């Protein structure tokens, strides 16, 4: 089996090799500060006894799992702490496929490209359901696409790349579809702290044995390099997921878990609201420049991405490279996210140079 290297890496490598100054709007690495309590936790950990530098319990530190469980309204035994949301999604998709309820994974279009990549890696087949022009997903379309071969339905809310946020009614309807076809709804909620709409609803709000929720602290605490995520499984699905996690990774970082636990306990809501406010300001700055450039664009209701379409400039890899060379701005080609947005480009608003990038794009496309 052959796997394709994600286009993210190609674009980042091209931008790094480019001559001149290039503003990185490719990857979702927050540029703001992590919680101070997280830094303090890492400092404190350095002075602990040698036994604290050995393997953590495979499913995660008990205190962290209990803290997550209390916040999410589940039992701690349902929580598996993972190497970020990436592994959490892998475990969830693998668990859905190994139930022998078909080999099909229903995905949205546009889609975060790691989901179809994981589907291929797990010997599943992909089936796509288009969202509307604002990235909203109609559960009726998902129901029409589902069949007896459907093992899982994978959604992300708030969404990457469209910025859409799925309300409670959508999540409940998607769980209904999963139950109807004895499939698993996998809800990736890694951007839940970046809901700008007030409409975010977790799939955990629906009591069902047909849904798995994945998340991580990578985005919410601006620590993508620390690699602490988690998946919440129904009780009847969790044991095999724990075994696969142990075989693949043994355990995830013990210092990272320790620091995240301290940050969870000591970081108040003001930290998260300040980051959302920063993001709101960047959305306004960037979309104002897109208006100047005459672009069509999506205004994110969550997450921190904007998709834009410039007349006569389709979202190909070649055009992304041109933009790097000629405008000094690196974004992602729309074709990386599926067929429906192949004319678009995606920009991540996680750089302090958003205003400068906006000026460069406006000047380039005027």
From TrEMBL:
<dbReference type="Pfam" id="PF00155">
    <property type="entry name" value="Aminotran_1_2"/>
</dbReference>
<dbReference type="InterPro" id="IPR015424">
    <property type="entry name" value="PyrdxlP-dep_Trfase"/>
</dbReference>
<dbReference type="GO" id="GO:0008483">
    <property type="term" value="F:transaminase activity"/>
</dbReference>
<keyword id="KW-0032">Aminotransferase</keyword>
<comment type="similarity">
    <text>Belongs to the class-I pyridoxal-phosphate-dependent aminotransferase family.</text>
</comment>
<keyword id="KW-0663">Pyridoxal phosphate</keyword>
<keyword id="KW-0808">Transferase</keyword>
<dbReference type="GO" id="GO:0030170">
    <property type="term" value="F:pyridoxal phosphate binding"/>
</dbReference>
<dbReference type="InterPro" id="IPR015421">
    <property type="entry name" value="PyrdxlP-dep_Trfase_major"/>
</dbReference>
<feature type="domain" description="Aminotransferase class I/classII large">
    <location>
        <begin position="21"/>
        <end position="359"/>
    </location>
</feature>
<comment type="subunit">
    <text>Homodimer.</text>
</comment>
<dbReference type="InterPro" id="IPR004839">
    <property type="entry name" value="Aminotransferase_I/II_large"/>
</dbReference>
<protein>
    <submittedName>
        <fullName>Aminotransferase class I and II</fullName>
    </submittedName>
</protein>
<dbReference type="GO" id="GO:0006520">
    <property type="term" value="P:amino acid metabolic process"/>
</dbReference>
<dbReference type="InterPro" id="IPR050596">
    <property type="entry name" value="AspAT/PAT-like"/>
</dbReference>
């Amino acid at each position: 089996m052959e796997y394709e290297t994600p286009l993210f890496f190609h674009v980042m490598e091209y931008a790094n090799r480019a001559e001149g100054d290039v503003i990185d709007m490719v990857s979702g690495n927050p540029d703001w500060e992590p919680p101070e309590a997280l830094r303090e936790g890492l400092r404190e950990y350095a002075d602990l006894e040698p036994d604290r530098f050995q393997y953590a319990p495979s499913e995660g530190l008990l205190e962290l799992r209990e803290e997550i469980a209390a916040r999410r309204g589940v039992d701690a035994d349902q929580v598996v702490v993972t190497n970020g949301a990436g592994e959490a999604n892998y475990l969830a998709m693998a668990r859905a496929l190994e139930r022998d309820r078909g080999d099909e994974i229903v995905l949205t279009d546009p889609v975060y490209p790691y989901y179809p990549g994981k589907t291929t890696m797990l010997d599943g087949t992909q089936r796509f359901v288009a969202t509307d022009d604002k990235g909203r997903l109609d559960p009726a379309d998902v129901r029409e696409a589902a069949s007896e071969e459907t093992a899982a339905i994978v959604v992300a809310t708030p969404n990457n790349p469209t910025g859409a946020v799925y309300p409670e009614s959508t999540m409940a309807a998607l769980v209904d579809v999963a139950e109807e076809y004895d499939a698993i709804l996998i809800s990736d909620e890694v951007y839940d702290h970046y809901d700008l709409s007030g409409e975010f609803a977790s799939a955990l709000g629906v009591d069902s044995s047909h849904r798995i929720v994945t998340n991580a602290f990578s985005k919410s605490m601006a620590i993508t390099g620390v690699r602490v995520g988690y998946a919440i499984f129904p009780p009847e699905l969790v044991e095999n997921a724990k075994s696969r996690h142990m075989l693949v990774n043994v355990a995830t970082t013990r210092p990272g878990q320790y620091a995240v636990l301290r940050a969870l306990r000591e970081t108040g809501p003001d930290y998260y609201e300040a980051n959302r406010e920063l993001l709101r300001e960047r959305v306004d700055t960037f979309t104002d420049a897109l208006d100047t450039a005459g672009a069509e664009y999506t205004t994110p209701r969550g997450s921190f991405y904007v998709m834009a379409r410039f007349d006569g400039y389709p979202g190909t890899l070649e055009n992304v490279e041109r933009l790097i060379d000629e405008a000094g701005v690196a974004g992602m080609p729309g074709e990386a996210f599926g067929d429906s947005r192949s004319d678009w480009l995606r920009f991540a608003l996680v750089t302090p140079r958003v205003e400068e990038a906006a000026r460069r794009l406006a000047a380039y496309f005027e």
